[in-house]
């Protein structure tokens, strides 16, 4: 378990069917019931806090079509989330709560390891009744997938009970296994959970306010839990106010109850497509996470930045088949993906696999060569095409998990082409790059310039310290300033003091020099005299 608390800012969207008289929507409006639904205790065991930041109820009609397969509904929802929810309210994951539907027995579906993704950070959860305990387990399970957790049907998961939350089949469990813990730690270590570092600001949650609930509610300076459990010296647990002499009690820009200095990095760049953020010296909060604008080249100019990630074929192959694996030649993609079977396709149409066209053959399932690892929970296929041993995989992670073997959005599939959703388009469609940074910076995800060191935002056309209006002030090189301060505040006063002493004692110094000259002359005369009258041998 990681020592640093992570915070998941979650938005729930309620399907219109759950609002109908058949179902009791009041269960979702009761904030105390929501506390149980959001499984605070389940995630606290992993040092994770789930914070509901908004509850959206489709009271009159559904804003997306919820018919079809679970995968189709998930696809529509995450697209709606990206276009509607993400611009309106900052959050890390969004889930759609569905009434009972014809989803072939699927109780939920989510993408794995996408918690911080504006386009894929979400899931759907099918609640066929108002049983809060059952609903809580389903939501915890699908949210676990967003956090990088796979199913527990692996060796040595060490579940403390007969079944755990991430079991492949619904069990009503309330514990996470060792496998789930390891999966979440791996997500953090890969830099996929950067958005989980920031605690929500006061008033940014929908849950009921209460001092001692370990959630910062509106009007509270801090909340470290009940007095008997609180170990935070910066916080008065009884009143949820700052302890005497404290400036802050939490946040990435708070250390030892004091604000960190302006320019201290509070969130480092996680990869080549991410950007750092800095403390401003007057707040405990780190600036919201920003990254390089979609469409910038990365991975030796073979791929493109997309949502703060540099997606490449080679990375995907290495994650499946080991560090020696790499992208297969185009002929492997054409041979496999134009077939339209489970080892090569461009997605599904209903229950059938969709064949890729020749122009989109690089956009379906990834095809690799070499590598010695056999991925767990996957069937692999090897074909010899023109003397090339082409490898691919069909993952069996469960009906609620999207197949991870598809080429990721943002991957460069040809010169001037990029992959959005299993099809190739020109790279101008993925990026609305604005060349306004005067060649001294790059555009960030807010379409503002992030300037190189030596240039100042907002447009990188004047001298400065770099960074952007979104990142906070970067560390400033104060060596020249410090050198001048030392010279004028230390060296100059010492020199002036010495000069003052010389002036005050100038007469004594002159007298001392005269006496020295007289003595020197006498010695010289005596020496010459002795030499002149020395007797001969």
UniProtKB/TrEMBL annotation:
Residue ranges occupied by any Peptidase M12B domain in the UniProt entry: 6-200
Membrane topology: Single-pass membrane protein
Compartments reported by the entry: Membrane
SUPFAM superfamilies: Blood coagulation inhibitor (disintegrin) (SSF57552), Metalloproteases ('zincins'), catalytic domain (SSF55486)
Major subcellular location class: membrane
SMART domains: ACR, DISIN
Keywords: Disulfide bond, EGF-like domain, Membrane, Metal-binding, Transmembrane, Transmembrane helix, Zinc
GO cellular component, one term: plasma membrane
Regions that span the bilayer: 484-505
GO biological process: proteolysis
Residues annotated as domain EGF-like: 429-461
Molecular function GO terms recorded: metal ion binding; metalloendopeptidase activity
Disulfide bridges in this chain: 159-164, 266-286, 451-460
PANTHER family tied to this protein: ADAM A DISINTEGRIN AND METALLOPROTEASE DOMAIN (PTHR11905), DISINTEGRIN AND METALLOPROTEINASE DOMAIN-CONTAINING PROTEIN 9 (PTHR11905:SF136)
Name the record gives this protein: Disintegrin and metalloproteinase domain-containing protein 9-like
Protein species of origin: Callorhinchus milii (Ghost shark)
Record gene name: adam9b
